[in-house]
């Protein structure tokens, strides 16, 4: 028997399944669209929501089984009533869904990449250091 023909212990072969496209989930009350900027680990992500707020979001268990969240992925964020800077990732959009959302004008047609957000963050850190007036290299 050739190597790799039967890859499992009981002799069954692996079959590659195509993912079902699924339905396009639009935003509803208490949710907002966002873009994943940074992966923090432990199912936590930094998401830039399209209302202009950067939030710390947690990936729900139900969503873990579906689409994989990467940097620059468009997600649907469930807002929390008691914490404005935190949220939950309710749905992850794939590339086809993102194109449909842009066509329906639900999200902006031009979205900045995560590298632009990181450069903006580095510039803000540099300006904060300049404001302090201390030269730490001289000390």
Overview of this protein structure:
The structure is a single chain. With 139 residues, the chain is an alpha+beta fold. It has a single domain, classed as OB fold (Dihydrolipoamide Acetyltransferase, E2P) (Beta Barrel). The protein contains three helices and five strands; from the N terminus they run E-E-E-H-E-E-H-H. The chain has helices at residues 61-64, 95-103, 114-132; strands at residues 31-41, 44-49, 54-59, 74-79, 86-92. A five-stranded mixed β-barrel has the order 1-2-3-5-4.
Classify the secondary structure makeup into a structural class: alpha+beta
Tell me about the biggest sheet? 5 strands, mixed, barrel
Based on CA atoms alone, the radius of gyration comes out at 21 Å
The count of domains is 1
Short description:
The chain is of the alpha+beta class. The chain has a single domain, classed as Nucleic acid-binding proteins (OB fold (Dihydrolipoamide Acetyltransferase, E2P), Beta Barrel).
Topology:
Elements: E1 31-41, E2 44-49, E3 54-59, H1 61-64, E4 74-79, E5 86-92, H2 95-103, H3 114-132
Parallel strand pairs: 3-5
Antiparallel strand pairs: 1-2, 1-4, 2-3, 4-5
Could you list some keywords that capture this structure?
5-stranded mixed β-barrel; 139 residues; 3 helices; alpha+beta; OB fold (Dihydrolipoamide Acetyltransferase, E2P); 5 strands
């Amino acid at each position: 028997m050739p190597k790799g023909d039967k890859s499992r212990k009981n002799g069954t072969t692996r079959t590659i399944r195509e993912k079902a496209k699924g339905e396009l989930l639009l935003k509803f009350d208490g949710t907002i669209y966002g873009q994943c900027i940074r992966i923090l680990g432990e199912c936590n992500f930094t998401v830039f929501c399209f209302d202009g707020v950067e939030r710390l979001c947690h990936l729900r268990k139900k969503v873990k089984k579906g689409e994989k969240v990467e940097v620059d992925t468009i997600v649907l964020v469930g807002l929390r009533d008691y914490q404005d800077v935190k949220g939950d990732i309710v749905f992850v959009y794939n590339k086809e869904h993102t194109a449909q959302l842009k066509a329906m004008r639900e999200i902006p047609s031009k979205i900045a990449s995560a590298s632009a957000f990181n450069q903006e963050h580095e510039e803000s850190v540099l300006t904060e250091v300049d404001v302090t007036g201390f030269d730490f290299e001289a000390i």
